[in-house]
Specification:
The complex is a heterodimer of chains A (about 140) and B (about 775). Chain A is mainly alpha-helical and about 140 residues long. Chain A has 4 helices and 2 strands, in the order H-H-H-E-E-H. In chain A, a hairpin with a 3-residue loop joins strand 1 and strand 2. Chain B has 33 helices and 2 strands. In chain B, a hairpin with a 4-residue loop joins strand 1 and strand 2. The chains are: A mainly alpha (about 140), B mainly alpha (about 775).
Amino acid sequence: MTGDPILRMVARFAVPLTVWVSIVIFMQGHNMPGGGFIAGVMAGAAGAMYLLAFGPAKPSRYRWWKVSVCGLFISVMTGTVPFLLGRPYMQHAIWHFDLPVIGLYELPTATFFDLGVYLIVLGTLMTIFVELAQEER
Amino acid sequence: MPTLELLLPSIVFVPFVAAGLSLWAGRRLGQRSGVLMVLAAAASFVQCLHLATGSAGARVMFVHEWMPSLRVALSFCGDPFGLFFALLISGIGTLVGIYSLSYIPKLAPARVGRYYASLLAFMGAMLGVALADDLILLFIFWEVTSVTSFLLIGFWYEDEKARKGALTALLITALGGLTMMIGFLIVGITTESFSLQALAGQAALRERLAASPLFFPALLLILVGAMTKSAQWPFHFWLPGAMVAPTPVSTYLHAATMVKAGIFLLGRFLPIFGGAPSWAGILVPIGLVTLLLGAVEAFLDTDLKGMLAKTTVATLGLITMLYGLGAAGQDALQMLAHATYKGALFLVVGIVEHATHTRDIRQLAGLRRQLPITFVLCILAALSLAGVWPSVGFLAKESLYAQLLGGGPLGSWVPSWLVLGLTVLANAFLFAVACRLVFGVFLGEPTTHAQRAHEAGAGLWLPPAVLASLSLGLGLLAPTTAALVSHFSSASRTALHLTLLPDHWEPLLLSLLTALVGIGIYVGRAGLERMRDQAQGAPTMQLVWDRLMEAVTAVAVGFSVRWQSGSLRWYLAGSLVFTVGLSGLAWQRAGISVLQVPVSLQEMTWYGFTLCGMLAFTALLVARSTTRIGAAIALTSNGFLTALLFVVYRSPDILLTQILIETVSTIFLLLILYYMPTFRPEGTPPMRRLINVAVAVAVGFSMFAFIMLSTSPQFREVKNLAADYLTRSMAEAGGANAVNVIIVDFRAMDTNGEITVLVLVGLLVYGLLRARRKSA
């Protein structure tokens, strides 16, 4: 299943661009429209575009479900670590860093949870897409 | 000594550690992992012995807080009766371990490791049952014995009969255990104490329990637990069915320990429930029926292990009856006698099977020359089974008759002469079984099976030799035995009087009568067997159980087929109707009528109306489309028009989500369109259409009403969710995007559940598609 030349031409630029936008959306998610879920769906859409343009040969080399399991691990750990430290399960904190160049930087630990969500959505979408694309027609 | 109580958890948990070790090292150790079993059992035995001698009859308690809010504690109690049971478990465990070393054939090393691991875990759990003081802890160990015994009975899992026997045993004992737990909970909640010692020792607690209206249900539930475990009628049939287990397992579980757990529990609860008339009213007749049924069926069986299993059922019935009569002073004697001779007999049968490859008594005869040592051991143990002087079985029977004759108040509605008469009859049958074992298997002309037999090695005959000589020795040393069993009895205040030479003539007379009737039964066995053959096909409990299981399976299958039909429309309709119903419940609870909801459309401008019109049109197109691709396109247009709606009403966050989701689901739709079955909208029956319309209208109406309510000014005054989240978002979670903060922080637990489902769905799709491709 490979797409037509125009689609391939477009995809060569559009796929990296979409992934990049998805990362931006993920990073700004806590304060502006965005977040792990939407960013994950966007990255998945980029993956779908790649599959339509170039076929499943390359992406099927990877076990995409491992990405989502990894994400689940990260998400659960952000809940478990505060629990192990004696605080309620899933209680998030806000870390403050005083970095040399950037200055004061705020990092809520919820971001790690969000990263997990991102990886899970991406991994699950890609698992299903790659498997469906490999089906015999 | 302060360290003494620490032995209690050590006794129980050492076998569990060894079980883990055996599981882990089994692959390398193979056959030799049995050494772990022997060592762990011996270690527990020595510790029990040390505790028993060190405490000198006093109670040793180990209490560790576990769940204090639920009043559940990790507490063990080393009283003489518990220690007696623990000594029995660990002692016979050692012998069974030694026996298994020679008995278990060369198998895959991991499987042998698993066998010993199950056996060790079982032993640990049994020790836990014996020594636990807390009822919940007792229940946990109790169920662990059910599960491990399932694994052990089903050891030859290639055999269908083994699987069935294991499952029946598990279902009956585990269900009984659960019933028992409800009883425990009633006791614990009414008395506010889960400690057996406290319940038995404090009269105030018992009075509170007796005054409760739940006293009788609790008693009944706990008795069901004990009766299922100890194979009492009408639950007795699982025990003969469990004889498919390897013989060491049968010896250990079904002669010496597990089946005694039920009567052990009766002993524990006698001080708590014993005063109630229903106690004796239930236990005496049940015990009596079990005793007689077991003894008669044992005599008529042809399978050696089946015979022994049924005599075990009989003896368990006897002890149940004794507890019903309140004669707790005998329990240790009866249990000790039974464990020694029945353990020895099971192991002897194991040797016979090992040597001849059959357990059918009709194919066996004349083994005395080929298996001389086994023959002697069998005679020694059978003497005890028959209750012949000077074995310990004789002492037990004399003591039993003396008890029944001397009577005392038999607090039961069964007349005492009937109890005595039936007990003598049942014992006569047991006598006949003993005759059949010795004469049938070892005497007479050798059969073809017998001629090929060879005597087993010392590893096989040594364990039964120990038990058989104990069975004889305990009889010869009657005064010592008396002191021992009086000390270890659950009613340790009553001293039992036993002598080698009987000093009362009435019990002796009854013993003689028993023997005479027994010989008569043995001689007239042909007639009895004819009667058995005629009665073939009569309804038994096993049959009733099988029918019950079939019915349960049929109901489950019927329900699943109808409810989980595999039709996506049915699932969708089901969940939508459920949602509507749930929201209806919410309306009703809030006391708001749906018709009172203020409908305000002033924020709808002309372009809002236009968009909504287009949305309705595309939705109608989806429903009216005659091809799948047409429906897919209409659905996609509907989705993007919805996105446009979010543009108009300036909600960038949801807009972004909507566009992305719409894109991805369109790709999905196109990818799977090819595999969908043929689309036949005209084939839908009118009734089905009507239901579909009704569901659609209900969902639309319900959602509309909810939106109108939540955006109405009155509602906002009560609780303005949006403003609430917007203010808390920055202050508490450090994020300005309230939508995302809700997802990852405020409602993180919900998200956690959702992402877990997502991962599982991904794995499922992966697995299903891979499997399909592989099979194609």
